[in-house]
TrEMBL record:
It holds the Pfam family Glyco_hydro_15. It comes from Thermanaerothrix solaris. Keywords: Hydrolase. Residues 3-281 form the GH15-like domain. One of its GO terms (molecular function) is hydrolase activity. This is Glycoside hydrolase family 15 protein. InterPro entries: 6-hairpin_glycosidase_sf, 6hp_glycosidase-like_sf, GH15-like. PANTHER family: GLUCAN 1,4-ALPHA-GLUCOSIDASE (PTHR31616:SF0), TREHALASE (PTHR31616).
Length: 362
């Protein structure tokens, strides 16, 4: 019997949702035994697309409670930002334990802003697709996050790959922009709408080189996460010349022919392989652009990476940028994470973009 990866992906996500509502990033990869706001928000969105609204509701409730539990740190960060002071340890962490506690640990890239923008965006998506009313707890947490992001959006932080903390990253800015625009609607906040417009103007003025968007401000190359500027955050339209040029550059430098998509041209994490979730992201862009055949080819490639139980990995080491780095990472952290719930989320999103209505109804 042929594997139904769509149904398997839903089952894998549900199986790995904690009683608290959080989603573990990967159950078989000890380093990822936490819940990231970025991963979790995309997973919740995928579950909404699949019609599993209760799962998404549980995640957003966990998120709101986690944010409120650590709200004093966010408030101190806002005060420091307004005074031009270093944040120190006063910021919301990008990942938490499944119970919502700070994970701690030296050397972790804990200061990341994109996941909180993604959460604000995903809350609006949940309300639209599920028809649920907005709980007071979510609204309160949304105000904390929106205030935090309005104050800190120009602060350098780690990117979505947990690198380059010294830089400002267009994908991070796009997630914040999309999140604040969403919050301006469900939180009825005009200030957030204006801040989102300021961020859009900043990106267009500072994050373009050679006719395309760049990995970070001051860099010249592209990063596959730049797809987020169009899908889902709509900083620019899918047909905008700058976006089309960026996708063309991603195709030329990062999309392996008949294969997956690398993160960026100098990636050495596990040798710099082809990321399953990025194949789904590029396919998502093509599906929404009406380029169905390209999207379907990427969906098929994703399906071919699943094992017999339907588990999708984080990346595939079939075509590495620098093979010398593969074994050292395996020796350090073990085999490549599998399943990675974010990979399954992007598969569901792309599948739904090609096969169903936005609410996930067949």
């Amino acid at each position: 019997m042929q594997l139904d990866l769509y149904r398997a992906s839903i089952a894998i996500i549900l199986k790995n949702q904690a009683p608290t509502g959080s989603y573990i990033a990967s159950p078989n990869f000890p380093t990822y035994h936490y819940c990231w706001f970025r991963d979790g928000a995309y997973i919740a969105y995928a579950m909404n697309r699949a019609g599993e609204h209760h799962s998404a509701f549980r995640f957003h409730t966990w998120s709101a409670r986690t944010i409120l539990r650590h709200a004093e740190k966010a408030q101190r960060a806002v005060e420091k930002a307004h005074q031009g002071l270093p944040l120190g340890e006063d910021y919301l962490h990008t990942r938490y334990t499944l119970e919502g506690e700070e994970a701690g640990g030296e050397g972790w890239a804990n200061f990341q802003l994109d996941g909180f923008g993604t959460w604000l965006w995903a809350v609006e998506q949940h309300i639209q697709m599920s028809g649920d009313s907005l709980p007071a707890e979510w609204r309160q947490a949304g105000e904390v996050v929106a205030t935090y992001l309005r104050a800190l959006w120009q602060t350098p932080c780690y990117d979505c790959w947990e690198e380059h903390p010294e830089a400002i990253h267009p994908y991070t800015l796009a997630a914040i922009c999309g999140g604040l625009e969403a919050y301006s609607r469900w939180g009825s906040d005009a200030v957030s709408a204006q801040t989102a417009q300021n961020i859009r103007d900043f990106i267009l003025s500072n994050a373009v080189q050679a006719g395309h968007f760049v990995k970070f401000i001051g860099d010249k190359g592209v990063d596959a996460s730049l797809l987020g500027l169009a899908v889902p955050y709509r900083v620019v339209s899918l047909q905008a010349p700058l976006m089309q040029a960026t996708v063309a550059e991603i195709e030329q430098t990062l999309h392996v022919p008949q294969g997956g998509v690398r993160r960026y041209a100098t990636d050495t994490y596990y040798g710099g392989g082809e990321w399953v979730l990025l194949a789904g992201w590029l396919g998502w862009y093509y599906a929404e652009s009406g380029e169905t055949s390209r999207a379907q080819a990427l969906l098929a490639w994703m399906e071919a990476q699943a094992d017999v139980e339907g588990n999708l990995p984080e990346q595939v080491p079939a075509s590495l940028i620098d093979p010398a780095f593969y074994i050292p990472w395996v020796e350090r952290w073990g085999p490549i994470a599998k399943p990675l719930l974010w990979s399954h989320a992007k598969y569901i999103i792309l599948y739904r973009a090609l096969n169903s209505t936005p609410t996930g109804k067949e």
